[in-house]
Design goal:
The protein has strands at about 1-5, 10-15, 20-25, 30, 35-45, 65-70, 75-80, 100-105, 105-110, 200-205, 210-215. The chain is mostly beta strands. The chain has a four-stranded antiparallel sheet, with no helix packed on it. The model is unreliable at about 150-155 (pLDDT under 50).
């Protein structure tokens, strides 16, 4: 979000009172006609879920970074919009794939971790780590998220997301949910044969409307229709 400046270019531009909102759904540049402070929200691509004869882990949400940064009218700033992790083949025993990073100027958000989905080394059923971690598969732990305290002084270093949920080895082999920007992914509920829900995303009103971003994906479940839900903010 930038102060209204008619010659500033980049992304799709809309107005929020006296602020201009620059929204990017594909990579590009931001070319300010002023020097000053802009607010940013950088969300990376989410991870994909794992597959297998046991319920695969849910994909972790892409990293979520927000804050303020100084820009200069003499500079042009690159914007990279990361994509979601590639889908995994089924049938088969395959972990999910991490999403790719997004960035604006010096701010970079990490792709979400893929969900667990393959037995044995190196994955060992564990969800991959990322901006938020992927959920575990069949007794595997969730991947870690890039967690950290929000720092208004140095906004480039605060955390991006949360870890994925764990999977047990009982019941219908439910997978853990992927982590979200606002909450951990849920571990499975083996006693009720339900996979773990995805962690909820985080809210931002940077566009002028409060919106939830970066929700984690739900874990999968073997041989059951008692499915779980993805986290608010886009979790599948």
């Amino acid at each position: 979000t930038s102060n209204a400046a008619t010659n500033t270019s980049g992304g799709t531009q809309t107005m929020d009172n006296l602020d201009v909102v620059h929204t990017y759904t594909s990579s590009g540049t931001f070319d300010p006609s002023f020097s000053g402070t802009v607010e940013y929200l950088v969300v990376a691509g989410g991870g994909s879920g794992g597959t297998g004869t046991a319920g695969g882990g849910g994909g972790g949400a892409g990293g979520y970074r927000t804050g303020f940064i100084q820009v200069d009218s003499s500079e042009t700033y690159n914007v990279t919009v990361g994509g979601g992790g590639a889908s995994t083949p089924f049938p088969g025993e395959s972990p999910g794939a991490n999403g790719t990073n997004s960035s604006f100027a010096t701010i970079e958000s990490s792709g979400g971790g893929g969900g667990g989905g393959a037995p044995g080394a190196p994955q060992s059923n564990r969800g991959y780590s990322g901006g938020s971690g992927g959920g575990g598969r069949f007794s595997g732990d969730g991947g870690t998220g890039n967690k950290g305290a929000f720092n208004m002084i140095d906004t480039s270093t605060h955390g991006e997301g949360n870890p994925g949920g764990k999977s047990s080895s009982s019941g219908n082999r439910p997978g853990g949910g992927g982590g979200g920007a606002g909450a951990n992914g849920y571990s499975d509920r083996a006693l009720t044969a339900q996979a773990g829900e995805g962690g909820g995303g985080a809210q931002s009103a940077i566009s002028g409307t409060s919106t939830t971003y970066a929700g984690g994906g739900a874990g999968g479940l073997w041989n059951s229709t008692n499915y779980a839900l993805g986290g608010a903010g886009g979790g599948g």
